[in-house]
UniProtKB/TrEMBL annotation:
It comes from Methanospirillum stamsii. Residues 12-45 form the HTH cro/C1-type domain. GO terms for molecular function: DNA binding. PROSITE patterns: HTH_CROC1 (PS50943). This is Transcriptional regulator. Signal peptide: none annotated. InterPro entries: Cro/C1-type_HTH, Lambda_DNA-bd_dom_sf.
């Protein structure tokens, strides 16, 4: 599970930059350091996982919604994407911890 979150975040960051946002804006929206976005873009950070078309579409839609300002806190949608990838019906441990801890864990490198 822990390899899924960096992979999801990396693709979201790449998609948002492709849609015209600066790395700094992406970092602010995803609550991460600009250096993390730079590392995602260069492939130095985030695991490379093949996504199903359904997961790719969910990531693309979340990225678009973030860029358009339709979503301000992506955590719930990221958890949904993780759930979709795992094919399960139960949230993973990163999605079931209290909000203040979840924010820290989801934003961990």
């Amino acid at each position: 599970m822990w390899d899924l979150l960096p992979a999801i975040r990396a693709v979201i960051a790449v998609e948002m930059v492709k849609q015209g946002l600066s790395q700094k804006m992406v970092a602010n929206l995803l609550n991460m350091a600009p250096s993390a976005v730079s590392q995602y873009l260069s492939g130095k950070r985030g695991y490379r996982i093949s996504f199903t078309p359904e997961v790719s579409e969910a990531i693309a839609q979340l990225s678009s919604d973030l860029v358009k300002g339709k979503v301000t806190d992506p955590r719930e949608r990221i958890c949904g994407i993780c759930l979709l990838m795992r094919g399960g019906d139960a949230l993973c441990s990163a999605c079931t911890v209290p909000d203040e801890e979840k924010n820290h864990e989801i934003n961990a490198p």
